[in-house]
Write a structure and sequence with these properties.
single chain, mainly beta, OB fold (Dihydrolipoamide Acetyltransferase, E2P), 5-stranded mixed barrel, two-stranded antiparallel ribbon, 7 strands
């Protein structure tokens, strides 16, 4: 089943896709890479997690949130290069 909804990011790295008229879908941290709080996404429900929640796999980001990301750019000596350290925990 494919559903579309708005992501509510959590500070622990996972997200919840809030849908209209259907059960919300849990996105594990590895599926949240590149997704920001309040983005509209399309996900495929792949299974039920151990708590009985629908767990999803990201298909596409339909629309980015117009809300800006506020943070500090940190440069590290890893393969990643640099990243933004968020100023507000809800910006996940």
């Amino acid at each position: 089943m494919i559903v579309e909804g708005i992501v509510q990011g959590h500070r622990d790295g996972y997200g919840i896709v809030v849908t209209e008229g259907q059960a919300d879908v849990y996105l594990p941290p590895q599926q949240m890479r590149g997704v920001l709080h309040l983005d509209r996404v399309r996900v495929r429900v792949v299974r039920q997690d151990r708590r009985g929640r629908a767990e999803g796999q990201l298909i596409e980001i339909v629309e980015r949130s117009a809300r800006p990301v506020i943070g500090r750019l940190d440069r590290v000596r890893l393969l990643l290069g640099s990243f933004i350290r968020q100023a507000f925990r809800r910006a996940a």
